[in-house]
Design a protein that fits this description.
This protein is about 40% helix and about 15% strand. The longest helix has 21 residues. The strands form five sheets. Strands 2-1-6-3-4-5 form a six-stranded mixed sheet. It has a four-stranded mixed sheet with strand order 8-7-12-9. A two-stranded antiparallel sheet has the order 10-11. The protein contains 24 helices and 16 strands.
Length: about 575
Amino acid sequence: MSVSPGDILRVRLDAATAHPERTANPCASGFPGGRGRAVMELLPYANLPFDHPDMPLCLFGGPLSGTTVPLCGRSIVAAISPLTGTVFDAQAGGRLAFALAGSGLAGVVVVGRADVPSGLEIVDGQAVLRPCPDWTALGATDIAARLRFPGEVLRTGPAAWTGAALAGVVAGRPGHVLRGGLGLCLAAKNLVYVAVSGSRAVQVADAAGLSLARADLMRLTAASPALAGAHGLSRFGTAALMDLTDSLGMTPTRNFRATRFPGQKAVNAPALARGYAPRRTGCRACHLPCGRMAADGTPLPDLDALSHFTALVDNPDLTTAVAANARCIDLGLDPVSAASALACHAEISGRPLSPSRLSALVDDMGHGRGLGRELARGAAAYAREAGRPEAAMAVKGLELGAYDPRGAYGLALSYAVSTRGGCHLRAFSIGHEVLRKPVATDRFDFAGKARILFQAENALAALDSLVACPYLALAASLEELAPALCAATGHPADPGEMARAGERVVYAERIINARRGFTAGQDDLPARFFTEPGTPGEDFAVPPIDRAAFLAARAAYYRIRGLTPAGLPLADTARELGLPWTG
């Protein structure tokens, strides 16, 4: 017996109505879903601008969505990013994956543009477009409150409607922001929100086999100190890593001009716990929730937002950081990129950011006012306009997260070649370089990192196609997930073939980016990391990255990935992977 992973609901927005059409999922085995399925939907439209009516906006769950498999309750939102110009996907937590599965859907593909700002509501697979032209000024919190929708609501905030490239999509409750300008992609289609709910029971092919696979994964996650330990993510959330990164000289401080933050102990995860008595929040189907919410319902920052609204902008005040993060979420503004743009401005202007100035600029970014409007274009665009492009700590336009690449060379390489811009989750090298899982590698050496990066990117693309939380990689591999996939779908699942599917996804993304003009010139890091040292520790130095060694490692990665020396796809490799590319 095999189980269909669901149809794809295709919605064209036209004349204030939605025209839905259900089509069979081309991946009848249910793999890849998520990121892999979304990338294949976007591939034929790679030459179009992000706001072209025919450019798809994709929402996909995975073949494990709606099941009891732990840490596999996430979903993918994907489009062409107005911030980076690259193909861009973001994992959404919350309940979207379960809502899609309960609707009998593998995913939703939206094209066209509504006549007026509207909400797209999908209930049990039926789509309705509801005009709401007066909702564009509402915060994300108010939109969720007004709807009181039983499923998941992806919503914009005011930032999307002022044209901010940093506008995100707010998912889940109390809310987290999906990066890359995806909120502006919704606004380009005149969508204020997309709401999905489903009431169907999810069928699996082998319930007993799924139960056994689930038990194995539960055991492995329980044995992982990084996930379930006394100081792990389930205890303090992702902010638990802030002490570790600081001890390793990897905390981005003052716009990456330093790598340790003197006020770190006053703004770390234990400080959050003392000051806010947080409650745990997380995705459905996750027994180790990493989100945190204050007693009054205020969403508390994750590692990237916490680190950037403190160390990166040189702010020692925790209250200001928490308020700025919560304000960003309500405005529909990416907190990580917003803080990075502010840090870039502080460096260029030479003016430190007081708490009041920081808060005012966040508001101005969300509402498109004055300097805030310029900052909301992103750090790269702002710095370029100011004549200081070197002050933008971004790759392909995406601002870097809370890990300084001078402290981990695999991370440095993965930032540079990431298909969506400066993102550490494309290969998750902090696992082996920082958390030393599954095996430790020398963080100050490029030796072997190109091969490790290739394999990790493939594995993470497979996880994103299931859709599984990337933190699951700290406890389990495709070997342990293959039995779960087989039990859920009834189709054989081989870890090697799953990795090969991940390889195909990454290569398809490279093809999309190549069609959009990306070459090796964009697979690079800001010059600062090659010329300025980080802050040393008591018994170690954090030197600048050796440029020649970096370029050699990148060249090795290109060879292993099957790319030209310019980082472009090869016709032979594309043909082997069943992908279209003629150069």
